[in-house]
Structure formats: C-alpha cells, structure tokens
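User: Predict the structure for this protein chain, please.
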Amino acid sequence: MNEVSIAAPAKVNLDLFVLGKRGDGFHELSTTMMLVGLQDELVLRVAGGAGVRLELDGPALGDDMPGGSSNLAVAALEQGLAALEKGGVSVPGVELKLTKRIPSGAGLGGGSSDAAAALIGLQELLGTQLDPEICAGILADLGSDCVFFQAARSTGLGRCTGRGEQVEVLPAPAAWWIVLLTPDVFASTRMVFGALDVLVTGEMREAPGAPHWSRLTAREARAMQHNDLQAPALLAIPELQVWRDLLQEAFLLSGSGSSFYALCADQDEAQIMLQTVQTACDAAGLEPRILKALPLS
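Assistant: Here is the predicted structure, written as structure tokens:
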C-alpha cells in the first residue's frame, strides 16, 4: 500500500479528578475521556529516502504548531519506524500530510490524537504490526493522553488513570451530541497545573467511584460531570472567565482548557443550545474560534 488516510478525533473529558502530586513531579489523575466528531486528517505516503517529511495545512493551523520531531505525529512515526527496523523490517521514508482542524492549547488532545493516528496509520501503510506493548510505550513517552487515542478508538470512551497513560476501555456511550465552544485563547497545561498546586495542597486522595456513563442519559451525565482543573484554569488564564460567564451551567471546561462543551441528548437539543450560545456571543461582541454542534466520534 502506498497511501493511507486516517482520522484523528478530538476528545473531551467527562470528568477529571487530580488526586495529588507524585514524587516524580507528575499529577495522579482519574479522568474519563470521550472522542467527539472534530477530527484532524493524516495522509501517509511511502517516500524515497529515509525519515519523515511533514506537510501542514488546515483551518486550525497556527504559528504554535511545531514541525520536525517536535510534532507529536512526526515523533510517533520516527519512533515507530525505528522500532520496526530494530525488529528486522525494511522501512522506507514516509511523507505525512497533516490537516489540522483541532486547535492547539484547547483541551481537545489534538496533538496526542495525531500521534496515535500516525502510529496506527504507519502499520497499515507498511502492512505490518508493532507489538502492542511497544506501541503503548511509544505513545506513553510522547504524552500522557496519547495512549487513550489508540486504546479507546473502538468505543470512543475510556477511563484514564496514573498520569493518564493507564487506560480502561469503556462501553460506548449513548448517541449524545455536544456543543463545543473554543475561545481564541491558548491554555497552557503547565500554567493550569501550576495554579492547581497553589490552590490545592495535602495528601494523595482516593479516586471517586466512576459512573456507568454508557447507561446514562445526557441529563443524568451532566449531573455527574466534574473537572478539578476548571477553577485553576480560570485563575491562571483570566480571559477564560469572560467565556465561562457567558455560558450556561451545562458547559464544562475540557481538560486544562481552553474549550468548553455541553452534553446534549440529540442533534435537536444541540442545535437549540448552539443557537442560544451564538446569540449570547453576538450580544457580547465575542467571536469564538470554534462554535459547533457535534456528534460523538
């Protein structure tokens, strides 16, 4: 096969609990992540020579998008090729065209999803398989939530613990929709966790019991949602407070931000909520980077 196309979906966090700070500097997490219908697109092609060549485009492409090995998709391909070569597979060069629709610094996991999709696509392109443990190791080294995007691809839902790299795949949720609002604000994960450390001190706490998300209606699920990072994100990035004040209580910050989203029972409810939010944005003179009603992925 000379070319493979693969989608890299965004995620939102249904809940996120920070249980404490570990001795290695990472935070112990318990979070449920869900794939949604906003996707980057990767096209991988066999190329002459060696290594990975990257082409970037798309509506969410910004100046903050890294190139070369600093790009997580490129890094995943380079490490995947190295692992295959170490296992005796003759590897070609690879061209990667990455079309960005998921913005950076938005709490949607775009770079991590790109990395997982690149590693999956590489194996399809070359008609070979890496050992699953090697794949998981590559992705865990690249980012705490990278493993989720590979492990939970089949159902779109997973419970992530440790620093986020330990994934329990969960049954697919109901056919919910979401309304997604991403402000034109970059949220630094490092800054948000720094603000959390100022707000919260103390011993490591136990993870709360997790609901059976797949059995819940959207209304029931909204009542169970929580994000320990929302308050520190609003503290660390004051521009987010304007957007939080604009939105209904149904909206929750995704991850460390900057995106907010609301669960909806179906497309009709999502379209009504979308129109309400659009009207509020217009009245406030605010223009979000993304405002969409989306199905789950």
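The first strand starts at residue 3 and ends at 21.
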